[in-house]
Design goal:
9 helices; 209 residues; Arc Repressor Mutant, subunit A; 3 domains; 53% helix; mainly alpha
């Protein structure tokens, strides 16, 4: 009888320019042989014996890297670290990450812009965002480009972001008569990564100074 085989792709897409936006993989659901082996088959019209468990095929380093990138953008150091945590040897992990970079699935510039936007939306200031980007060993050009992307999208009004943050967290009407509360608010903004001028300016805006 005719032998039939079904296959399942290892992933359906990757984020592109955002936190978790998927794009379609090329036809066949694999990239450069990254597709996983099928999970079920029939031979001569017979199905596997009932209750028999099929051994799952071990993913290659490249497939593991791809599965991580499907979920969200990763920097190269972050991707290497996660592969190592999954038991991948350093040389194999480096090769897998390089394959992802060459194919366009991994891009440090795209990662930087995505992370900067996520942190800004989450209420972090530019100093903290820049420091976090630096931990990913991104060069100054990529970090600058990430902030330029925020500005181009109208998301880099840091004084306004600081004021919005204070309104969500404090009773700003009380600032005028409560110096201790004002100091607390300034310290909060500094911890969030806003510079001193922005932090003090945001508090003064609610005092009416």
């Amino acid at each position: 009888m005719k032998k039939t085989t079904t296959t399942e792709p290892v992933a359906s897409g990757l984020p592109h320019g955002g936190e978790a936006h998927d794009t379609d993989l090329p036809a066949g659901g694999s990239v450069d042989g990254l597709g996983a082996a099928g999970t079920g088959s029939t031979v001569d019209g017979e199905t596997p014996a009932a209750g028999r468990r099929k051994k799952r095929r071990e993913l290659t380093p490249a497939q593991r890297a791809l599965s991580l990138l499907v979920r969200r953008e990763h920097s190269q150091p972050e991707l290497l670290r996660k592969l190592a945590a999954r038991g991948i040897e350093p040389e194999a992990a480096a090769d897998a990450v390089e394959r992802m970079r060459e194919a366009g699935w991994q891009d440090d510039g795209r990662f930087a812009a995505s992370l900067a936007r996520s942190r800004a939306t989450g209420g972090h200031g530019p100093l903290r965002i820049e420091a976090e980007l630096a931990t990913h060993r991104l060069d100054a050009g990529r970090i600058a480009a990430a902030f330029e992307s925020l500005a181009a999208d109208g998301e880099a009004d840091w004084p306004q972001r600081a004021r919005d943050l204070l309104e969500r967290r404090y009773d700003v009407a009380a600032f005028a008569d409560d110096p201790a509360l004002r100091r607390k608010a300034v310290d909060f903004l500094l911890r969030r990564g806003f510079d001193g001028e922005t932090a003090y300016g945001a508090v003064r805006a609610f005092r009416g100074d």
